[in-house]
Amino acid sequence: MSDANTQAVEKYRNNFLKEVSERVEEGDWVKMCMQCGVCSGSCPLGSAWAHPPQEIFMMIRAGKREEVLTSDSMWMCTSCYNCIVRCPRKLPITHIMHGLANYAHRLGLAPKNQPTRVLGTLFWNNAIQNGRINELKFSLALYFKDGFSQGIKNALAMKDAGLGLLKAKRLNPFEIFGGHGCKGKKGIHAMLKKAQEIEARRKNFTA
Amino acid sequence: MAKKEYAFYPGCSSQKGASASNYLTSVNAMCETLDIKLTEIPDWNCCGASIGYAEGGELPRHVMNARNFALAEDNLPGQQIVATCAACWLGARETKERLDASSQLMADTNEALKEAGLNYKGGADVRHMVEVLIEDFGYDELKKPVVKSLEGIKFAGYVGCQTNRPFGIDGESFENPVYLDKLVEMVGGEAIAAYDQKVTCCGGALAFSEPEKSQKQIKDIVESAYDHGAEMIVTPCPLCQANVEIYQSDVNKRYGTKFNIPVLYYSQLMTVAYGGSAKQAGLDGQLIKASKLEQIASKK
Ligand code: SF4
Ligand code: SF4
């Protein structure tokens, strides 16, 4: 178990709802859910979720900490906001799903090779490195995440689309040498470091 | 002086050589005709997109957006911020609303921004290009420069998620928004009113991480366009455009279909209707050629 996770377990004992309220983005809304199921029924990938949103909220209240945080369900959220506009109680469901995924990731409980977890991490790291996304490096990092030979396979599978984009000038091979970025990237790095410190302070994260 | 001026937030995908660069080309042409002056926010950064949450978390994401706001306030005082990308707009607007609602979050954000030598005062609104067109100009005004009708082309107006939810365009319903259809009709095209997939999610970023699942979404979106006799799909969102266009060949392999339908931006339609060339409309950026539109563009 990671230190951060041990610390969280000790701090909140058996009160997972409290933990979610205090540490997960928009988590204090969970207690407002009336279990009508509209969110689950509205979710485009809902059938792929082991536990659709309504069930996740029920499980949080039932204290099923381990099951929720190790689930790959909330990683299936496409950020379509269908649930949000339909929920009769106006829960910010999308953000809670993002928040739960992020919290599980932070504690090291999220499924290790969950593809969206990997994607999200690659994306953010790519974005903050120079301040802007380098689409070429991002795609390559994604293809090659499972090693070189799988990477070649993935890249070949996407060959037609890739070549099409190149031809249409919507993919620039020279991005590999740097590409777009912000002049103020030093400031961006400093500001993000500070933001992480503040967030850790506010939410009482240790590690 | 231009009729209207805005602080422009193009977003990463609109940059030169990036996946929505043809969107920007057409927006520039469209804005020139309408006398809209877009001034890029100097040194703007990535908004974090919809998937940034996984690693970025809450405050860092807001801080990224707030940096853009602060830069806009400092360099383009008094101008509203306009984004062309649905995800950029949504992310930025969300940050704006959260900061407006919480003085704590605002203080935390400014504490972090200080490290970059910036301060955000909480000024300018964040708006989507479509919002600006419809609310600041209106259909009648937008119709005036039309010199070529897109008559004879049937369009499935694919609004998708993030330009539609949770904020959407004022006065439109989440389940059946009609502004895109109205824009199509305004340029003389035929809008397919019965297009039942107009607000379906394309899978968003999960097109990369969960291809089987998101391609099912894409299949439904394209199939319904065909079933209703559409010749082209039109959208306001760069990710919808990319997903629905790029993955059609994969969908064909997976499902044994033969889809090959062009997917365009509203701004490309408007540019052509305003008399712009195929190049000005960014039509050379289509993976699936919009031949009928190219023909209209090349007509004298
Ligand atoms: S729609 Fe809202 S109230 Fe209903 S189950 Fe989902 S979160 Fe709960
Ligand atoms: S935003 Fe996420 S949780 Fe909500 S309906 Fe869409 S995919 Fe499901």
TrEMBL record, chain A:
Chain segments annotated as coiled-coil in the UniProt record: none
Pfam family of the protein (one): Fer4_8
InterPro entries linked to this entry: 4Fe4S_Fe-S-bd (IPR017896), 4Fe4S_Fe_S_CS (IPR017900), HdrC_iron-sulfur_subunit (IPR051460), Helical_ferredxn (IPR009051)
Keyword Metal-binding: yes
Entry keyword Signal: no
Entry keywords, A to Z: Iron, Iron-sulfur, Metal-binding
GO molecular function: iron-sulfur cluster binding; metal ion binding
Residues annotated as signal peptide: none
Residues of the 4Fe-4S ferredoxin-type domain: 22-54
One Gene Ontology term, aspect cellular component: plasma membrane
Name the UniProt record assigns to this protein: Quinone-modifying oxidoreductase subunit QmoC
Organism listed in the record: Sulfurirhabdus autotrophica
Organismal lineage: Bacteria, Pseudomonadati, Pseudomonadota, Betaproteobacteria, Nitrosomonadales
TrEMBL record, chain B:
Stretches assigned to the Cysteine-rich domain: 6-88, 158-244
GO MF entries: oxidoreductase activity
InterPro entries to which the protein is assigned, alphabetical: Cys_rich_dom, HdrB/HdrD_reductase
Keywords: Oxidoreductase
Protein name: Heterodisulfide reductase subunit B
Species in which this protein is naturally found: Sulfurirhabdus autotrophica
